[in-house]
């Protein structure tokens, strides 16, 4: 009985420590502004080359940011499903060409619960080239 009480107490304390961190909402717009700080938006494009994507990341409930090999950042604000965007999710994209385009969809997968948690319909990709060096 003592072991059960100690285990429950430990679990309760752990939940109390984890809950505040999980409850703190992330400001997607502020995070996106930080990601593109010092850059100027270019003309939106319909597609980007998959082979030139160096990395991608989700900005909570706001956008997906793709960093290209040349340093340009492309921001995609999904036309549908943006409320499903969560930085802890993994993006799974089925593509049938060498490009990622505005007509493609991205599934969001939570590796913790091993389930699809949503999807987004991509929109135009807005380029933010690397600022010129002074």
The biggest sheet, with number of strands, parallel, antiparallel or mixed sense and barrel status, is: 4 strands, antiparallel
Give the total of beta strands. 9
Instruction: Pick out the low-confidence regions.
Output: 1-21
Q: What is the 3D form?
A: globular
Number of domains: 1
State the order of secondary-structure elements, H for helix, E for strand. Answer: HHEEEEEEEEE
**Oligomeric status:** single chain
Instruction: Using the CA coordinates, give the radius of gyration.
Output: 19 Å
Strand order of the largest sheet: 2-3-4-9
Gap between N and C termini = 69 Å
User: Would you tell me the overall average pLDDT?
Assistant: 85
Would you tell me the structural class of the helices and strands?
Answer: alpha+beta
The percent range for strand residues is 25-35%
Number of helices: 2
Helix content: 10-25%
Signal peptide: 1-23
Keywords: Signal
3D architecture notes:
By secondary structure, this protein is of the alpha+beta class. It has one domain. The strands form three sheets. A four-stranded antiparallel sheet has the order 2-3-4-9. The protein is globular and about 45 Å long. Keywords: Signal.
Element layout with pairings:
Blueprint: H1 2-23, H2 28-35, E1 47-49, E2 53-59, E3 63-68, E4 73-76, E5 90-93, E6 99-101, E7 105-110, E8 115-121, E9 125-128
Antiparallel strand pairs: 1-6, 2-3, 3-4, 4-9, 5-7, 7-8
Signal peptide: 1-23
Keywords: Signal
